[in-house]
Amino acid sequence: CFHQPAKVGQVLEVEYQVLDANFGNMEMQQNMDINFVLKSPTGEELIKEQSRTEAIHRHEVKEPGDHTMCFDNSMSTVSSKTVYFEVYVDKTGGGSQEEDEWDGGDIPYSPELVYNDTYKDIKATIKKVHENLNQVTHYQDTKRAHEARDRNVQEHNFTRVNQFSMLVIVVMLVVGAVQVIMVRSLFEERSRLRKIFQYLS
């Protein structure tokens, strides 16, 4: 379980996805589902999901305090799972500390320093850039998580293909050896296999 503090009016966004699932030390792809629970500071279950591989949730905070996020893998007693998750708190509703830092009081400006963009315009522009950068970071993390999951699936498939190829090679060698032994035995007078064929014919 993980805990995230939030204030009333803020929006708590939780995103998670299962990247990998292994059956012990064996290269076997298992069920990639897990259970997820989001609890309020008082212990009330706000969101409860079962057997999900990935999901995105947005919850408007109504109780201040630490919200609990729990990931449950009890359905798989042997296999272990790798889970990527990200928690984002939208501070628009409850106000942010960054806005308070800009309101530092009245700053005297001389007429020479007054430009076309006012103080409020600059503040709004910087805030917008900050939000866009946060979104870019979020998208990059999501893409990296998808890439990691796809890479794990490819590695499992590569291992399976190699194992199946080795099995096919062994079967071909055994069949070839049996064929050689049978053909040679047909031309040997003392061969038991030749006597059996002669008896059947």
TrEMBL record:
PANTHER family, alphabetized: TRANSMEMBRANE EMP24 DOMAIN-CONTAINING PROTEIN (PTHR22811)
Domain GOLD, residue spans: 1-89
Record-linked Pfam families: EMP24_GP25L (PF01105)
Name recorded for this polypeptide: Putative membrane trafficking protein emp24/gp25l/p24 family ovary overexpressed
SUPFAM superfamilies in the record: Supernatant protein factor (SPF), C-terminal domain (SSF101576)
GO cellular component terms, semicolon-separated: endomembrane system; membrane
Keywords, in A-Z order: Developmental protein, Membrane, Signal, Transmembrane, Transmembrane helix
Protein family (similarity comment): Belongs to the EMP24/GP25L family.
Signal keyword on record: yes
Primary localization: membrane
Domain of life: Eukaryota
Membrane topology: Single-pass membrane protein; Single-pass type I membrane protein
Compartments, as annotated in UniProt: Endomembrane system; Membrane
Transmembrane portions of the chain: 164-187
Keyword Chaperone: no
